[in-house]
């Protein structure tokens, strides 16, 4: 029995403030906001705190956290999704530029 070649997604390893994010996460610099920070976005934002992962679809819900907190921005595209390893500080910069 033979098997057709499988498509394998590249695995990236990103270290953010002592947390290693392994998988298909891209660098945070590639992420773009498509909705105002206070509105429910087509993205999911995950802040990685000690002992807690805070998940929201409103970026504004996380802007009270320290800039150094690692985060993942998960963008839901029309044909695929992408995860971006970033930080609250990088996301705050995007939110401020939106205004």
The largest sheet is:
5 strands, mixed
* Helical stretch tally: 1
Q: Over all CA atoms, what is the radius of gyration? A: 15 Å
Low-confidence stretches: 1-11
Number of strands: 7
Average pLDDT across residues?
78
Instruction: Tell me, briefly, the overall form.
Output: globular
Question: What structural class results from the helix and strand content?
Answer: mainly beta
Tally of structural domains = 1
Percent helix range: 10-25%
Element-by-element helix/strand order:
EEEEEEEH
The strand order across the widest sheet is 3-7-6-4-5
How large a portion of the residues is in β-strands, by DSSP E? Answer: 35-45%
Instruction: State the end-to-end distance.
Output: 58 Å
Could you characterize what this model shows?
The chain has one domain (12-98). With 99 residues, the protein is mainly β. It has a five-stranded mixed β-sheet. Helices cover 11% and strands 39% of the residues. It contains one helix and seven strands, in the order E-E-E-E-E-E-E-H. Strand 1 (12-16) and strand 2 form a beta hairpin. The chain is globular, with a radius of gyration of 15 Å. Residues 1-11 have low confidence and may be disordered. The protein has one helix at residues 88-98; strands spanning 12-16, 19-23, 25-27, 43-49, 52-56, 70-76, 81-87.
């Amino acid at each position: 029995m033979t098997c057709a070649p499988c498509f394998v997604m590249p695995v990236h390893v990103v270290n953010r403030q002592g947390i290693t994010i392994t998988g298909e996460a891209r660098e945070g610099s590639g992420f773009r906001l498509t909705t105002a920070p206070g509105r429910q976005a087509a993205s999911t934002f995950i802040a990685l705190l000690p002992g807690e992962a805070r998940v929201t679809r409103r970026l504004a819900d996380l802007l009270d956290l320290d800039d150094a907190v690692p985060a993942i921005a998960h963008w839901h595209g029309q044909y695929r999704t992408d995860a971006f390893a970033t930080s609250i500080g990088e996301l705050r910069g995007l939110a401020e530029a939106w205004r």
